[in-house]
Write a structure and sequence with these properties.
It contains 20 helices and no strands. The chain has 354 residues and is an all-alpha fold. It is globular.
Amino acid sequence: WQRRLEAEHDNVRGALQHWLGREEAERGLRLAIALQQYWYLHGYLAEAHSWVRDLLALPTAGNQTRGRATGLVHLGHWAGMRGEKAASEAVTQEGIAIFRTLGDEGGIAAGLHRLGFFAWEYGEYDEARRCIAESLAIRRRLGDAAQIMSSLCWLGRVTNYAGQPAAARLYLEECLALAMQMGSQRMIALATEFLGEVAGNEEDDAEAAMRFAAALALYEASGDKAGIGTVNTYLGRVALQRGDIEEARQHFRTGLRVANEIGYRKRLCDALEGLAALAATDGRAERAYRLLGAAAALREASRELAAPHERAWLARRLAPARAALGERAVTVEAEGRAMTPEDAVAYAREDEVA
């Protein structure tokens, strides 16, 4: 159905423009929100954000209604994906406040889940765990299996990033079992990917490679661009660890290309850092530190922090470049920091083979 929707994209846009022009906010929001997975899988992050934002701005968008609250939570999601932290938090909190007024526990849980997701994105792991654990408790009480599965998956991920891989594995294995029972291919892919992250945190490269390869196959089958880009970068790290330089190079390049295409800033940073690690391994110290500087500037601008275990991995991989540059490392890194995101991507792709 995702491919059929892609073929009908112009008609979808026409329908949304129709409801926007007629100021029928409720109908337009229902359609835009129903398409969330489509927007995400195909990388239409900016477009999704603009439709939901413009529909919510209509005078007919209501005030203390469930439709408005749902729209605000979704707008927060798309703003967060674009690296707009303050805006994301503000509109999501506004949506949760409406849900609380209405006594809508499912809506409250959805909003808390979103807040937790973006707290994780910005490296606020304790806050992320608090929000998602509260969301999970509500969803268990409501008995919503699909949403329980989602909360388990993300609680597992943030727990791993908080440095507790053993506890994370328990959440993710429960999620994976439930996803397989329900036949949810997307959640199977996510849980498998996140178990690969756990294995990487435990320095089990063989399990990590197996999990990431399995997740990539599922993402490719569904056309999930964000998943394809993310897992390629992870596979690049694993390949670099085992010394397969050319395989790592191809994975990092794919991760960079996809993240740039869909505007996913966090994954763009990850890919730039992967290519920096690769350059250090190749003995190109200046290139490594320029790429590192470009990624660092991008992370700081959008507050997209890497996890502690990821920062430790990168520091180990860049150690030879740091030693080669000596005091010049700071100057070279500053050159990378001065690049715009567009310049950074162009620089990262300079040595691609046509």
